[in-house]
Write a sequence for this structure.
């Protein structure tokens, strides 16, 4: 049986209010970067993945969302202090998501959202956006849903959003249920002081093909894709082991290999999908030269040309000397997550 998003939402909210209980609410959710990627869906409507994935949250980098109930015939959306047209792609997606929660006695909201990360930087802003939104809705409607249930709701907005409800490392278990009730984020309660991520952003252009379309094309046309689930299984195990043992080289090499393998499946799709640019390749070569010179640094890459570097605090200086434009982030600040 195939379920619709609305059916899943009704199931989750069956004991909860369908009307706002407060006039306003606000929430923050972090950006998450996958170390083992989500690439391929078993259910396109519900954003159910074919495999598990594992991410790390960026503390203090994410989306802040403020909701205000308004007496108006439509929602108002303000992004980084600018009122945007409700016909834009961003607004259409957001309004369609809110529509799933509206009943006959309807309501409209002013949604103010600000992002700590550069806009259109290929930094999964939709993941932090949808998770901040469901957290703010929970407050506004005074639901008492668990983070697991909120993770399922966020997944209906954007798959990787289900990993943005927690700080630190998060596993998204693929699940097997057709309603997706077992497909959500799970916090991995392990901290890793000194672990850092550097963002290398090459340009601000929008991507040529959305991750949604790119993953679907890969699943349906790439011969290499059949090797991806086995690779993910191995990579998840290695990452969990690396996190438990705080084995940086195992973490970094697994993440880099996983990202390159995901891009290889895309390159073998038809028509081919290549997010990598000449700047990406130059930076990759620099990472490999640094490694050859004994500096432990690795990269991961999502559906865009930008790279995210992984390294330890003791090498931060040498790495920023080599990449002066790097935005570097302590992943576990003051031993907190
Ligand atoms: O959640 P989506 O549809 O934005 O897809 C995310 C895809 C990747 O960023 C490439 C991988 C991931 O796991 O975040």
């Amino acid at each position: 049986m195939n379920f619709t998003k609305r059916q899943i939402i009704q199931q989750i909210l069956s004991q909860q209010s369908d009307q706002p209980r407060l006039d306003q609410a606000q929430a923050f959710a972090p950006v998450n970067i996958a170390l083992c990627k989500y690439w391929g869906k078993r259910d396109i409507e519900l954003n159910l993945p074919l495999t598990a994935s594992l991410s790390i949250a960026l503390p203090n980098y994410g989306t802040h969302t403020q909701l205000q109930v308004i007496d108006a015939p439509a929602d108002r959306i303000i992004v980084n202090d600018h009122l945007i047209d409700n016909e834009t792609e961003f607004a259409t997606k957001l309004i369609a998501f809110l529509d799933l929660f509206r009943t006959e006695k309807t309501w409209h909201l002013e949604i103010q959202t600000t992002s700590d990360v550069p806009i259109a930087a290929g930094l999964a802003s939709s993941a932090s956006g949808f998770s901040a939104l469901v957290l703010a809705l929970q407050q506004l409607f005074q639901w008492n849903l668990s983070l697991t249930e909120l993770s399922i709701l966020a997944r209906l907005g954007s798959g990787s959003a289900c990993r943005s409800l927690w700080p630190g490392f998060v596993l998204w278990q693929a699940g097997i249920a057709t309603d997706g009730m077992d497909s959500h984020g799970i916090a991995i309660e392990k901290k890793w002081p000194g672990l850092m991520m550097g963002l290398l952003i090459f340009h601000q252009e929008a991507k040529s093909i959305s991750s949604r379309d790119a993953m679907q094309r890969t699943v349906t046309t790439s011969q290499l894709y059949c090797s991806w689930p086995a690779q993910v299984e191995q990579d998840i195990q290695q990452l969990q082991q690396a996190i438990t043992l705080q084995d940086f080289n195992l973490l970094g090499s697994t993440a880099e290999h996983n990202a390159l393998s995901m891009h290889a499946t895309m390159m073998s799709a038809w028509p081919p999908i290549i997010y990598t640019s000449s700047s990406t390749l130059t930076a990759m070569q620099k990472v490999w030269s640094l490694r050859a010179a004994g500096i432990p640094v690795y990269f991961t890459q999502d559906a865009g040309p930008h790279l995210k570097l992984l390294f330890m605090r003791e090498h931060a200086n040498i790495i920023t000397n080599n990449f002066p434009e790097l935005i570097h982030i302590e992943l576990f600040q003051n031993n907190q997550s």
